[in-house]
Amino acid sequence: MQNTLGGENSNGGPLLPRVERQRLHDAVVEHLQNLIIEGVLAPGMKLNEREVCERLGISRTPLREAMKVLASEGLIDIAPNRGAFVSKMNDNEIWEAFEMMSGLEALSGELAAERISPAEIADIKVLHEAMLVCRAQNDLPGYYSRNQTIHNKINEAARNSMLRQIYLSINRRLLALRFKSNFQEAKWDRAIHEHDEMIKALESRDGKRLAAILRQHLLDKRDSVMADLREAAGHAASGGIAATAKK
């Protein structure tokens, strides 16, 4: 059987896309997600297709396909005749999203404590140790990646597909803000202490305790994020006043 793009196989069915193309698509989506999470592409920033293509070494077609995926996830807004922009939530949306996420994380923890397997707990402990190594090396991206994988695995261990869907949908929009909340070392170390307590509650299968820790963990993130936003707004306002005074 000759395998050619755009044709049919010997059974008369359509051919599947080349694996390489799918890998490229996934890689571009993941790379853009990371740029948004780490703040390289900041909220409200317009995406210059030419610059992004040059940076990633790709053509515009895979970039546009990736942007459609990110738009469906709420990470990018595509405006007709204006282009694509990194999504930006207002203060009220951020508050409500973290409030909702705290409940989802708490429910995930309570269910996971009942349903998680010993092998899954062992995997989470390995990730936790790797996360501590990243903290010792001041590797924030590495730390955050393992941090989020731990939260993700707890959610998966809840074994509830409806909870999983809602969790992923809301968490995608908060990833960049959760990343930034660890910039200050005191907050970073407090988050690690809370993760230590999560591991203990998970090992003892204390669902109520784990739910309470996770809920407060997310509410602390919310308060940290809101404080940072207020501080940034204050600096911006004082900068504007100073610039006006110089004129």
Automatic annotation (TrEMBL):
Keywords: DNA-binding, Transcription, Transcription regulation. CDD domains: WHTH_GntR. Coiled coil: none annotated. The keyword NAD does not apply. SMART domains: FCD, HTH_GNTR. Pfam families: FCD, GntR. Residues 22-89 form the HTH gntR-type domain. One of its GO terms (molecular function) is DNA binding. InterPro entries: GntR_C, TF_FadR/GntR_C, Tscrpt_reg_HTH_GntR, WH-like_DNA-bd_sf, WH_DNA-bd_sf. This is GntR-family transcriptional regulator. It comes from Herminiimonas arsenicoxydans.
